[in-house]
Design brief:
single chain; mainly beta; 5-stranded antiparallel beta sheet; 9 strands
Length: 121
């Protein structure tokens, strides 16, 4: 009796990616979120209050390889949204944490931060 092969199986790379939820600062003056397509972080300034919208971004690299920590400032004023593309700085399948905050760029201080449900790069 012979063995016949009907179809070939191929191994494929694992695919993991997920957008974060949208985070809103404590009083809704800003929002921030992560989109896995292009590994982009967005921050939106919703209120003309004299402060900037801020996104705090953190990613822990696998195997104790350090991580990414960044502060993204939208200093363009109320009603604007900016984005930052991280690309290969965010390794595939790593968890991306995003907080939406309000801050003063000239002092580097931010507050009223609320974290989004994390995304996956």
């Amino acid at each position: 009796m012979g063995l016949s092969v009907i179809g070939a199986h191929s191994a494929s790379a694992a695919y993991c990616s997920e957008d974060s939820s949208v985070a809103y600062s404590a009083y809704g003056n800003s929002s921030a979120w992560f989109k896995n397509d292009g590994d982009k972080v967005f921050v939106h300034d919703a209120v003309a209050d004299g402060h900037s919208a801020v996104a705090v971004v953190s990613v822990e690299y696998p195997n104790g390889g350090g991580g990414l920590y960044d502060i993204v400032w939208d200093r363009q004023g109320a009603g604007t949204t900016i984005s930052v593309a991280y690309g290969t700085k965010m390794p595939e399948c790593t968890t991306v944490h995003i907080d939406a905050c309000v801050g003063t760029y000239s002092t580097g201080k931010y507050w009223d931060c609320i974290e989004a449900r994390p995304g996956i790069a």
